[in-house]
Amino acid sequence: MTGSPAPTAVASRPQAALQRRSRLASVPLIYVALAGTLLLGAVLMAASGGNLLSPGNIIDILTRSSLLGLIAIGQTLVILCRSLDLSVGYVAALSSLIAATTMAGDPSRIGLGVAAALGAATVVGLFNGVVTAKLKVHAFITTLGAGLIIKGFLDTLYPGPAGDIPAAFQAFGYTRIAVVPLSAAVMLVIAAIGVLVLHRTRLGHSMFAVGGNDEVARLSGIRTDRTIIVAHVLCSLMAGMAGLLLAARFGTGVGSQIYNAGYDLDSIAAVVLGGTLLLGGRGGVGGTIAGVLILGVLDTVFNQMQINPFFRDVVRGVVIVAAVAIYARRQIDPTKSRSRFGPKSTAAPDRREGPSDQPGRPPAPQEVPS
Fold this sequence. Notes:
Mean pLDDT: 83
Helix content: over 70%
Strand order of the largest sheet: 1-2
Order of helices and strands: HHHHHHHEEHHHHHHHHH
Strand content: under 5%
Number of helices: 16
Low-confidence stretches: 333-362, 364-370
Distance between the termini: 41 Å
Number of domains: 1
CATH topology: ABC transporter involved in vitamin B12 uptake, BtuC
Radius of gyration: 25 Å
């Protein structure tokens, strides 16, 4: 006689499959939204006599996306851990100035300048991570404070542009492979690495676990503090790379022009638009890149059509709010509320009524009042 599988084992299979699907459920949706944005933008541009898919506009979209994409990749990692980083714009400005002043126009000092810029970014990320994870200061306060410290330092020592980027390194900001800027290619490679890290390594699984429930992750043996610190260090490194890209484009190091550009909020908007929860534990780099591209397409369309910047910000805000509302509705699981608060299923016998009527089953244990 063949025995039937245990009900809990049968029930756990679809539940586990549902959890695996729900982790990346927002990624296909955001890419559908990206395709819709491209189509709508192309129609609007064609109506005004332009061509969104011309080589020049594609280069413009990818150039815009490469800078914000680098910062948003790092922002994704900290948000997955239920943290945040508001210092990314200041870190990018600091890195550009350190790189420019260290290189000082000498091609032989390019490696030293890159190392110094990324080293400074690492120190800031380490500070943010340690204060957030060890001292239990909220990441909003920690990273905002770190950004203000950097701002005061830059405004005092570098009130204007400083340093000189050698022409050999400026190629990083302007070289293209066909219609793909080198900076965009680098961003996409880093994004692919980020996807692999999140879904194929222990560090990535730890980030999802910490963002989902840090206490459960800690009881499961995950070093939650170390995971948060590593996420902040990687986020600052990405901001440092964005600062190097900005230095290559400007040919010098700049401060206020970078940290006043709003890269911190734009990166958070791209991450949220890409489907990553601000509460952590769900999302990924793939959706973030799609969110970055949507913002890049919108900016290119608005610039080509010479639309009022105020209206541009309104449209971007509406798009972000609508996307978050759609994700919130998709994350509602009505079966959970029914099973937890709804009436009990008639198929399951009430254990308090004594032994089961079904033959072959032992009587259910009686509850002992506490």
